[in-house]
Amino acid sequence: MEKRNVVNMLLAMMMVVFPIFGFIYIHQDHVRQPQAQSGWMDLRSSQLHAGTVRLDGEWEFYSGQLLMPEDFEPAPDSGRAAPANGMLVTVPGAWNRYLNEAGEGTGYGTFRLRVMLPEAKEAVYGVHTTNIRMANRIFVNGHEAGSSGMPDTEPNGKLQGNIPYTGFVPINDDYAEIIVQVSNYIYSTGGMIGTLQFGEAKAIQNSRERAVYADVLTVASLVIPAGYFLALYRLRREERSLLFLGMFSFGAVIYVLTHGEKLIDLLIPSLDYGLVIRMQWISSALIYYFLLRYIDLALPGAVHRPVLLLVRLSTVAFIGIGIAVPTLTFSSWEGMVITCGLLVIGYVIMRMLPRLGTRQSHVFLTSVSVLSIIVIIVLHMMSLLGRPQFAALIPFEMFFFVAAQALLHAKRFAETTKESEELSQRLLTLDGLKDEFLAKTSHELRTPLHGIINMAYSLQQGAAGPVSAAQAAQLSLVASTGRRLALLVEDILDFSKLKHGELILHRQAVHLPSVAQSVVDVVALLQTRKEVRLVQDWPNGLPLVQADENRLRQILFNLLGNAVKFTERGTIHLQAEHEGAFVRVSVTDTGIGIARDKQEQIFQAYDQSGSSGAGLREYEGTGLGLSIAKQLVELNGGKIWVESELGKGAAFHFTIPVAAAEPVEAEEAVMEKAPLLADDTGAAPFIANPPKEEREGEPAHVLLVDDDPVNVQVLVNLLSLDGIRTTATASAEEAWLALSEAGPSLDLVIADWMMPDVSGLALCERIRERFSLSELPVLLLTAKNRPADIQTAFHAGVNDYLSKPVDADELRARVKTLLDMRRSAQASLRSQMAFLQAQIKPHFLYNALNTIISFCPVHPDKAMELLVDLSRFLRSSFAFHNTDQLIRLEKEMELVEAYLSLEKARFEERLDFELEVGSSQWVLIPPLSIQPIVKNAIVHGLMKRAAGGRVKVSVKESEDEVHVCVEDNGIGMRKELVRQVQFEHGSGRSVGLKNIQKRLLALNSTGLHITSSEERGTSVQFSLPKAGRRPPIEKGWREGPHESDID
């Protein structure tokens, strides 16, 4: 066996064997104690001044009698005799076996013992109770020594009590008569359960103090670790074992306070003893459960799942019993709790002992802690069962428990510290490698980047021949994009130099407004799509500043770039003020602002607090700009700070020392406001026309939605190669406006997922509220390619997606496929519209002709009118304009009126109709949009009734819309059919109402509104915007950051 295992086993043996030796010693001491016989105890040869004596042995007991001392003094003159029905019983022990024949523990009685003392001398003697159940009162030689509760012959829960106490009386005889009255009505067992100690006053007082001190020490030994474990758990939530160890300690505190000397009476003197009993029961159940949970979490695999589940259910049951069941009832089940506790202890010992020899120190220390707790529980149970001397061994076991826990957490702290140091060293190494990689990569990128910029500039200037205006604009865009990337490369290089102290400044007198103007010009070129205005405010007499001009320019560029990035629309102020030996420069914006708790972090490298604090991931950058600005300001002899409130913009201030040269006058006039937009009209949508070559047919129309102008221009160029007309917008709100204005003329929407305010995904969801997948396809561009992101996009109604960077040929192929799909869907819809004409079935013509023939002999004029109506109906039905998207209202009403006239002549009194049409017949509506509804009302509504009914067609106008309503009083429609027509897309057997519903939705209408009640009739309504108008667009349409929008 290895040396380590030998040491571990010796420690475990010492922890367990020491209490065994203590038990043997206490037992031998108990054997030496005198025993009462026949109600007498002889203490004449005992040294009472040296200690206390346990009054164990045979006592006299009088069941059903609460006797006073005078009852044992016979008075022959008065005829009073000695108490009868006395018996000898063994104390300590429960009185259930001799109190009554039923063996119940409730009742009352009197115990009596006479003690022979060493010699007759006046001395003060005392008694110390441990566990007399329940209410009790003690008399010594006729004097009341003490009481707990008040014994009574009738049940009275309020007078019950079992709190240990001491009592003292003077004795000058050679014997002492001790009478104990006891009554119990709230517990299943009663009597003198614990021993009664007797001795001189000083010895009794010492005995009481030792017992109280032992309990106080135990409580303190549990409270301190409990608080420590719970506080440690609050700091380290992942270690749940600390929580249950702390809860076990607190449960053990409640257990100790309600047992032994019952210190809870000192804390809450007026506490009802029934509540104390419930606390004893519940705390007994909880400590075993918390102990098992601690072992389960501290030593994974040590506790079997079924065992843990069984103990959990048992604990819940015990708690419910302790709360709801009377104490007299559940106290009879006390053996069940003890049995469960012993089973848990045995199971834990069985699982812990094999782990004492383990090589892992934390497993050994945890096992020692658990075994110490188990020994403590056993010792406490022994003291409660009439051996209070065992309580003296509890502090020894507490030492093992505290020492094991202290070593365990000290070792864990040392290991954690060592891991942190190793991790920190590794992170420092990785950080250095990262900086080195960034620096080398930036160096490698800088040369080709400058080559791209210079080549684009030279081509723009005509190095390879004359260029057109469009080509010059494209080359300028390439150059500006290259400059943006070059600035990022420079930031990375500068950060590396600053970190290693390699940056050299060339400080000189600098004219601040001139440097600032050059920065503003660059920022204006790089930012052309935002509604932001820049105001410069330079006071007269502003002195020169002492700074490195290039680095000052870099500071201003970083601060202005940060302001522009976080300001979608508004104003940015750049101003300065002379303050003694410094000039304070301020950059103030009206953007999203910075939370107060993030303002200290934003100047740290790679920090994203400015964007993450606002919840806007689309604004994130490298996180180097503000960090570099801060270091450059400090290197130039100034300081930088920020003032901001979330949602109210931010103000960055920094100071620069004044140069030693004489101040010069700045420009007299304050700089005018300079917009950051390409023009001052705002970021309106712009149209890119296809090449001038002749192309067959109408060109497709695609809506582009992207906040990056470079991406937009790339898409415009690619799509123009295929003759596609494009409308470009910079936000979802602009796209929705453009979509509403263009209406059905749009063939496709290409949107970027990540955009400010409203994402492309939210825009797609809004589009799907009005257009189906085939009516207006959506192609989503995204950097996301995880399956969950793709699934989210398709759920939102996206037809297809492309991952960035996009391959040009793949993009054109995807666009062509989606456009072909839409054309096929439109052709199918037109075929359905044409099929409506085919619904003039032969039997309708037969019925119409038969009706006309029947009128010829009797009413030839009426027959002539019906022939005219039939002619109008057939001419309108077969007209070619019925495949158009919109026709004049009067054309549709001619068809309706002709149809109604024919049906009226056929059904006569069974059909009645009313037409209510406004005077503005010039409004445009979809063809065959009213007549099929009227036909449906007559055929499926009115004629299903024997009496027929009435149909009413009304067309009304408002300022912006046309409202059409067809009402009948027929049999109505089932709710399922109404829901199918209004909300279900896709093809079906019905080409009537569903076809109308699809065409209305495609025309920016809200579709059919059907109100129907069976046997009462149906109302079908729809509204359309007048020609040349569009529905109102909600202003301020915004959304919060979508959960799936985070890369």
Automatic annotation (TrEMBL):
<dbReference type="InterPro" id="IPR001789">
    <property type="entry name" value="Sig_transdc_resp-reg_receiver"/>
</dbReference>
<dbReference type="InterPro" id="IPR004358">
    <property type="entry name" value="Sig_transdc_His_kin-like_C"/>
</dbReference>
<protein>
    <recommendedName>
        <fullName>Circadian input-output histidine kinase CikA</fullName>
        <ecNumber>2.7.13.3</ecNumber>
    </recommendedName>
</protein>
<feature type="transmembrane region" description="Helical">
    <location>
        <begin position="211"/>
        <end position="230"/>
    </location>
</feature>
<dbReference type="InterPro" id="IPR005467">
    <property type="entry name" value="His_kinase_dom"/>
</dbReference>
<feature type="transmembrane region" description="Helical">
    <location>
        <begin position="7"/>
        <end position="26"/>
    </location>
</feature>
<dbReference type="Pfam" id="PF06580">
    <property type="entry name" value="His_kinase"/>
</dbReference>
<keyword id="KW-0812">Transmembrane</keyword>
<keyword id="KW-0808">Transferase</keyword>
<keyword id="KW-0418">Kinase</keyword>
<feature type="transmembrane region" description="Helical">
    <location>
        <begin position="278"/>
        <end position="295"/>
    </location>
</feature>
<keyword id="KW-0472">Membrane</keyword>
<dbReference type="GO" id="GO:0000155">
    <property type="term" value="F:phosphorelay sensor kinase activity"/>
</dbReference>
<dbReference type="Pfam" id="PF07695">
    <property type="entry name" value="7TMR-DISM_7TM"/>
</dbReference>
<keyword id="KW-0067">ATP-binding</keyword>
<dbReference type="InterPro" id="IPR011006">
    <property type="entry name" value="CheY-like_superfamily"/>
</dbReference>
<feature type="region of interest" description="Disordered">
    <location>
        <begin position="1014"/>
        <end position="1047"/>
    </location>
</feature>
<dbReference type="InterPro" id="IPR008979">
    <property type="entry name" value="Galactose-bd-like_sf"/>
</dbReference>
<dbReference type="InterPro" id="IPR010559">
    <property type="entry name" value="Sig_transdc_His_kin_internal"/>
</dbReference>
<feature type="modified residue" description="4-aspartylphosphate">
    <location>
        <position position="752"/>
    </location>
</feature>
<dbReference type="InterPro" id="IPR011623">
    <property type="entry name" value="7TMR_DISM_rcpt_extracell_dom1"/>
</dbReference>
<dbReference type="InterPro" id="IPR036097">
    <property type="entry name" value="HisK_dim/P_sf"/>
</dbReference>
<dbReference type="GO" id="GO:0005524">
    <property type="term" value="F:ATP binding"/>
</dbReference>
<feature type="domain" description="Response regulatory">
    <location>
        <begin position="701"/>
        <end position="819"/>
    </location>
</feature>
<keyword id="KW-0902">Two-component regulatory system</keyword>
<dbReference type="InterPro" id="IPR003594">
    <property type="entry name" value="HATPase_dom"/>
</dbReference>
<feature type="domain" description="Histidine kinase">
    <location>
        <begin position="440"/>
        <end position="660"/>
    </location>
</feature>
<dbReference type="Pfam" id="PF00072">
    <property type="entry name" value="Response_reg"/>
</dbReference>
<feature type="compositionally biased region" description="Basic and acidic residues">
    <location>
        <begin position="1031"/>
        <end position="1047"/>
    </location>
</feature>
<dbReference type="Pfam" id="PF00512">
    <property type="entry name" value="HisKA"/>
</dbReference>
<dbReference type="GO" id="GO:0009927">
    <property type="term" value="F:histidine phosphotransfer kinase activity"/>
</dbReference>
<feature type="transmembrane region" description="Helical">
    <location>
        <begin position="362"/>
        <end position="384"/>
    </location>
</feature>
<keyword id="KW-0547">Nucleotide-binding</keyword>
<feature type="transmembrane region" description="Helical">
    <location>
        <begin position="242"/>
        <end position="258"/>
    </location>
</feature>
<feature type="domain" description="Histidine kinase">
    <location>
        <begin position="930"/>
        <end position="1028"/>
    </location>
</feature>
<dbReference type="GO" id="GO:0005886">
    <property type="term" value="C:plasma membrane"/>
</dbReference>
<feature type="transmembrane region" description="Helical">
    <location>
        <begin position="307"/>
        <end position="325"/>
    </location>
</feature>
<dbReference type="InterPro" id="IPR036890">
    <property type="entry name" value="HATPase_C_sf"/>
</dbReference>
<dbReference type="InterPro" id="IPR003661">
    <property type="entry name" value="HisK_dim/P_dom"/>
</dbReference>
<feature type="transmembrane region" description="Helical">
    <location>
        <begin position="331"/>
        <end position="350"/>
    </location>
</feature>
<dbReference type="Pfam" id="PF02518">
    <property type="entry name" value="HATPase_c"/>
</dbReference>
<keyword id="KW-0597">Phosphoprotein</keyword>
